[in-house]
Amino acid sequence: MTTAARIEAPALLGASRLRMNFPMTVRRGTKAGLVIQMGSNVDLGILTGTSIRTYLNGSSTAVDNFAASTLLDLTATGSNKAVLEFIVADDINQIEVRTAGLLNASVSIDIFAAYGTVTPLPVELTAFLGKATSSGVVLTWNTASERNNDRFVVERADDQSDAFRAIGQVKGAGNSIQPQQYQFVDANPLALGYYRLRQVDADGKEEFSPIVAVKSALKAAELAAYPSPAVETLTVTGAAGASFGVFNQFGQKLLEAKMTLEQRQQLDVRSLPNGVYFLKDLSTGQSTRFVKTASVR
């Protein structure tokens, strides 16, 4: 094998690192590793200051972090090359060598190969973007290839950690080795919406895309409540997915609900005492007033 890369750490203080990308995802539970050489023989003292770390999609948080000396297998390739092999704890697509210099001696490591067990994904997603327009939020995504792909389900949440809900779907290409382009328009977007794709295979297996956040360019729907006076049911209209609360004249919140995607919600107000109340959008602060009464003459 020929040297593919070299990493050098300075003498005394300092450290160097080299991160390499795999062309596909290395799945959890499979083997990955490196073939390296330091001079004519592997020096365990040098390896003490060297670590092997793995990452997914350029994250700053390592999936795995091993001391190189704990992975050493001199018998795999001979005395002058070493295999550093490990079991992957979670999906990765990057592997990094990080090494610190020794006292009065710099460290040079030749890397011959980085390897892992890669499994082609059913759908190779190359882009997923969202853009606010006058007609709604336009979502576009591209694939480089597809295998057994039945459909993409478009999901939305009003908070990145909140439960995502399906708002539509787009038919997949099935099997394709050609680039494909897709588009979906959310005509009733939230003021700030979080979107993701749930890709579904023909056999029901699912994969999720990264999340994109989009601020809507549409004017938020006006908050309204009727009838007033209300006896049993209050109809509330406003921005889809918005959370709103009912407050009394002392500012106490008595009821809370979330607007449906149809921008309309029925609220049972029979438990409220007769009086004047305020309906408030909890995210924008927009409010409106209504009256609750026992009966309407």
Automatic annotation (TrEMBL):
It comes from the Bacteria. Transmembrane segments: none annotated. Residues 226-287 form the Secretion system C-terminal sorting domain. This is T9SS type A sorting domain-containing protein. It comes from Hymenobacter monticola. The lineage of its organism: Bacteria, Pseudomonadati, Bacteroidota, Cytophagia, Cytophagales.
